[in-house]
Structure to design on (378 residues):
């Protein structure tokens, strides 16, 4: 497999133009490099922040850009085949290059959006580790505070940097859309979908934080809705629809149901990997979700079991020990909560697979997306 595609799923490699992925990576590296160069003239600290942002972008798996590019390349290939079969004298489409450029900018934008959410999420969850290493909060808090600063002072500076860095990256996502040469109605639809996605993701994150405080016990349906909104809206629905809108292609009615099912599956899998996955692959502190009191589908299932009293006594404890965390994980297993959440995941994947099988020209690429998620380990 070409190196440019190696970090994305091999399942969708056949649907993605390697040159497109390479170009997205180049742009993701160029933006923070250029912004950092400009910032260095008046704020060395901001330049350092852009340096960390750049590292994060280069290390990304490009799941969302890969989805967007795979769908766009599939639609474009089908369109080119149709045009070739209908005429022997192909007249170049003057809008073709503009649409391809729009797809590339949107692929960059969706990765920028993802990083912005990660940066803000680390602040919300008070996490200092990302991908198995100190995150921006930990690094900037250590690097730009005065010698002798307390841990609390370094955390305060680091979390402020996390919020501000997320704002900068989110702004860059909007800049990508601003650069697109597209008809006014296409640009409007792209922007409206971005705003709608932000609304869903923010609502899901807010619900996630509220559920972790457990002022009341949300139902399983509430938790599944939160899960789909928090991550699914921007991980699956946004890149799928952006690709079709940018190419001015029809959006099949069933695509909304597919995006909802696969987006829910993605978050359920994320929750299960966060608790039970291999930390070396997940790159996340396996105790963090328990420490933060995350009320995921696993916890929703556990809440109706006799083991819940002991499980809930440990949730949200900042001082939880590794032994106590291991005990919680064992109880989630023995209570059947893990298996029940796995069943939720399998149902969502079954729904997505059924819709993909009936998706016409998009059938192959949507099937590949479901298969890629089924095999995901990090």
């Amino acid at each position: 497999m070409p190196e440019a595609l190696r970090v994305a799923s091999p399942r969708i490699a056949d649907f993605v133009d390697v040159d497109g992925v390479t170009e997205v990576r180049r742009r993701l590296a160029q933006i923070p490099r250029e912004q950092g160069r400009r910032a260095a003239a008046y704020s060395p600290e901001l330049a350092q922040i852009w340096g960390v942002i750049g590292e994060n972008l280069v290390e990304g798996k490009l799941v969302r850009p890969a989805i967007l590019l795979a769908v766009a390349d599939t639609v474009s290939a089908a369109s080119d085949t149709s045009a070739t079969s209908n005429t022997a004298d192909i007249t170049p489409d003057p809008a073709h290059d503009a649409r391809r450029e729009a797809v590339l900018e949107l692929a960059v934008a969706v990765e920028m959006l993802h990083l912005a959410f990660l940066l803000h999420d680390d602040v919300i969850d008070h996490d200092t580790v990302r991908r198995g290493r100190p995150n921006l909060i930990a690094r900037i808090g250590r690097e730009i505070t005065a010698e002798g600063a307390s841990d609390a002072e370094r955390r305060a500076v680091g979390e402020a940097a996390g919020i501000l860095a997320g704002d900068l990256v989110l702004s860059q996502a909007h800049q990508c859309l601003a650069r697109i040469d597209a008809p006014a109605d296409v640009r409007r639809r792209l922007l409206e979908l971005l705003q709608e996605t932000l609304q869903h993701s923010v609502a899901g994150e807010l619900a996630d934080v509220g559920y972790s405080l457990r002022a009341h016990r949300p139902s399983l349906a509430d938790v599944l809705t939160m899960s789909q909104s928090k991550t699914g809206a921007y991980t699956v629905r946004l890149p799928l629809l952006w690709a079709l809108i940018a190419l001015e292609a029809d959006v099949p009615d069933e695509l909304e149901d597919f995006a909802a099912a696969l987006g829910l599956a993605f978050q359920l899998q994320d929750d299960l990997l966060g608790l039970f996955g291999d930390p070396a692959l997940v790159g996340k502190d396996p105790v963090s979700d328990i420490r933060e009191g995350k009320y995921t589908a696993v916890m929703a299932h556990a809440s109706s079991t006799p083991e819940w009293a002991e499980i809930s006594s440990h949730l949200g404890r900042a001082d939880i020990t590794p032994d106590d965390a291991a005990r919680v994980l064992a109880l989630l297993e023995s209570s059947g909560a893990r298996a029940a959440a796995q069943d939720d995941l399998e149902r969502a994947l079954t729904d997505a697979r059924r819709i993909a099988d009936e998706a016409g020209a998009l059938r192959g690429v949507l099937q590949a997306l479901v298969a890629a998620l089924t095999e995901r380990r990090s």
